[in-house]
């Protein structure tokens, strides 16, 4: 591990060799062994992303004046996203570095709306308990008050409970399409209607679904409305670097109109370094991420996205049918390739460890304990068959009383029993300290 900057440089090929060797311990996402973090659309798409990214590797999206190319690409990406999500010509947005930044911008805009339009000093937002922690991070960063609304038995947010949480300072209600944990879509029509009735904003987090659900619907999947077609929805987040298959660092945040988006911008006219105008959270905005998103959308087109959505829907059905046939339970009614499953008979964390030992990385969930799956085109065909064969083998061995291999089951079991969340937070902080320690 290097501790200081090397005195003299290393030749390019040697540096590249070192870089490649660093991959050795990484998750084998290309083989479909992981179920999150990477959305692989094939080698050809990967190469296009690399080419497009390198073409604009130096350009900076902070200045659309210096780089009109990036301005044009960003406007096109935002327009394509808006039209996929039933937005009309009034819908405006920006690209961001990812789901978290899109959500942070939506929360910041709601806060400014609350302060400037409604005169509320300390705005309050209501977020489903299943919503991504990016909302918790955003309210933390922007010092906004919030409540989590509880879920119903089907894992959708309880809209009646949401209504009870509304107070005079409330400015925003949130729904997910779908939520990460169980892959179910909240009742967006009901949330947006409630928001409209109470004169509030309504944000739909479609980070996962924004570039998947429109195609699933076109393929005939029956879906409750979740986008700008629903009256009362005022903003949406949708990640290009997930099911949009873009390079990492690309998402969009969209607003019903330009007046709402205005609350997102940051400007500062008092700096002796010049006039400063920044559309989103980051200062410098990597041109490569914008160019790669633009390139993949043009390259795949509707047909390319439909082909991939079809593959995901088919693999998911095959996977869920097999999982149910093994006696395992799929939680709720997931709408696409994101879902969770658990078991009444075996410890799912031990099942996760047994799958780890077979090379598969499934994320663990709590409340209720479950394993999480995120199907992508990389999981089709032989990968799926091998996965299901391994799952069946691991499950039947555990059910027969064979001990699970060592893994994280004990830790997850223990964490689930600690009533004091602050204690778990402390544990997670220590974990981060250790992970990023230079020693
Ligand atoms: C529903 C949802 N929203 C937001 C995010 C945050 O996205 P990112 O990790 O790109 O910041 C995720 C990430 O998985 C997500 O699933």
TrEMBL record:
SUPFAM superfamilies assigned to the protein according to its UniProt record, in alphabetical order: PLP-dependent transferases
Record protein name field: Aspartate aminotransferase family protein
Annotated compartments: Endoplasmic reticulum membrane
Modification type N6-(pyridoxal phosphate)lysine: residues: 242
GO cellular component, one term: membrane
Pathway given in the UniProt record: Lipid metabolism; sphingolipid metabolism; Sphingolipid metabolism
Cofactor needs: pyridoxal 5'-phosphate
Any one of the GO BP annotations: sphingolipid catabolic process
Mode of membrane association: Single-pass membrane protein
Keyword terms: Aminotransferase, Endoplasmic reticulum, Lipid metabolism, Lyase, Membrane, Pyridoxal phosphate, Sphingolipid metabolism, Transferase, Transmembrane, Transmembrane helix
Organism: Archangium gephyra
Gene Ontology terms, MF aspect: pyridoxal phosphate binding; sphinganine-1-phosphate aldolase activity; transaminase activity
Highest taxon, organism lineage: Bacteria
Family listed: Belongs to the group II decarboxylase family. Sphingosine-1-phosphate lyase subfamily.
Entries under InterPro entries matching the protein: GrpII_AminoAcid_Decarb (IPR050477), PyrdxlP-dep_de-COase (IPR002129), PyrdxlP-dep_Trfase (IPR015424), PyrdxlP-dep_Trfase_major (IPR015421), PyrdxlP-dep_Trfase_small (IPR015422)
Main location: endoplasmic reticulum
């Amino acid at each position: 591990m290097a501790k200081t900057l090397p005195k003299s440089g290393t030749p390019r090929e040697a540096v590249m060799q070192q870089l490649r060797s660093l991959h050795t311990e990484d998750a084998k996402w290309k083989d479909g062994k992981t179920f999150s973090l990477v959305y692989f659309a094939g080698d050809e798409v990967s190469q296009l992303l690399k080419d497009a990214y390198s073409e604009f590797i130096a350009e900076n999206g902070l200045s659309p004046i210096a780089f009109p190319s990036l301005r044009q690409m960003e406007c096109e990406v935002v327009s394509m996203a808006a039209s996929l999500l039933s937005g009309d010509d009034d819908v405006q947005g920006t690209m961001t570095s990812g789901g978290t930044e899109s959500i942070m911008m939506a929360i910041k805009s709601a806060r400014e709306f609350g302060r400037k339009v409604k005169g509320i000093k300390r705005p309050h937002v209501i977020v489903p308990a299943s919503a991504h922690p990016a909302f918790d991070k955003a309210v933390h960063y922007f010092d906004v008050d919030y409540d989590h609304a509880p879920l119903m038995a089907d894992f959708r947010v309880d809209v009646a409970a949401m209504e009870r949480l509304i107070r005079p300072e409330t400015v925003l209600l949130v729904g997910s399409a779908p939520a990460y944990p169980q892959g179910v879509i909240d009742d967006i029509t009901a949330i947006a209607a409630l928001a409209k009735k109470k004169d509030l904003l309504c944000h739909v987090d479609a980070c996962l679904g924004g570039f998947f659900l429109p195609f699933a619907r076109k393929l005939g999947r029956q879906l409750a409305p979740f986008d700008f077609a629903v009256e009362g929805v005022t903003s949406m987040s949708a990640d290009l670097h997930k099911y949009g298959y873009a390079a990492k660092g690309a998402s969009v945040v969209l607003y019903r109109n330009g007046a709402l988006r205005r609350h997102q911008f940051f400007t500062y006219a008092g700096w002796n370094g010049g006039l400063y105008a920044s559309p989103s959270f980051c200062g410098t905005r990597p041109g490569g991420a914008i160019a790669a998103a633009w390139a993949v959308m043009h390259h795949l087109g509707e047909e390319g996205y439909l082909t991939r959505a079809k593959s995901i829907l088919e693999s998911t059905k095959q996977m869920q049918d097999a999982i149910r046939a093994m006696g395992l339970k799929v939680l709720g009614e997931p709408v696409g390739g994101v879902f969770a499953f658990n078991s009444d008979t075996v410890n799912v964390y031990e099942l996760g460890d047994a799958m780890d030992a077979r090379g598969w990385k499934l994320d663990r969930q709590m409340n209720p304990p479950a394993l999480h799956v995120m199907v992508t085109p990389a999981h089709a065909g032989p990968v799926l068959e091998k996965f299901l064969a391994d799952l069946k083998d691991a499950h039947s061995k555990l059910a027969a009383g064979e001990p699970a291999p060592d893994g994280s089951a004990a830790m997850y079991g223990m964490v689930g029993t600690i009533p004091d969340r602050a204690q778990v937070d402390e544990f997670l902080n220590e974990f981060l300290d250790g992970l990023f320690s230079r020693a």
